[in-house]
Specification:
6 helices; UBC core domain-containing protein
Length: 122
């Protein structure tokens, strides 16, 4: 596990095998598993599991999507949430993003300070 604010990418030993699985099987098993270890206030991320609600992970995973491309998809999602794919655990977060952006930004900043900032950093 990394320190606060440090990204951690864990690639399972069977990663290559999973990317070669036929699409019908990938859709049944949910495609690739990607999650955050840090609590993040975001419409597409479950605060309880860190699971990311992105169609690319659930339905459209194909072997040619590189780790770099996947991380870019996630980066873009963090910048601009996709409210159509809001995680069911955080429907209220999606509503706040849509209807009260100032409150959303304030809450997200509070969560960042609480969960992702190193309390010993200066």
């Amino acid at each position: 596990m990394g320190s606060a604010g440090e990204p951690v990418v864990v690639v399972p030993p069977d990663y290559k095998k999973r990317t070669g699985v036929p699409q019908s099987v990938r859709m049944e098993t949910g495609g690739q598993k990607v999650r955050f270890q840090t609590n993040i206030f975001h419409p597409n991320i479950s605060p309880s599991s860190g699971g990311i609600s992105m169609r690319i992970l659930r339905q459209y995973w194909v072997p040619r999507i590189s780790m770099l491309k996947l991380l870019d998809f996630i980066r873009l999602m963090l910048i601009k949430p996709n409210l159509e794919e809001a995680h069911p655990d955080v429907a209220d977060t999606a509503e706040m993003y849509k209807n009260d952006r100032a409150m959303y930004e304030s809450t997200a900043q509070s969560w960042t300070q609480l969960y992702a900032m190193d309390p010993n950093a200066q």
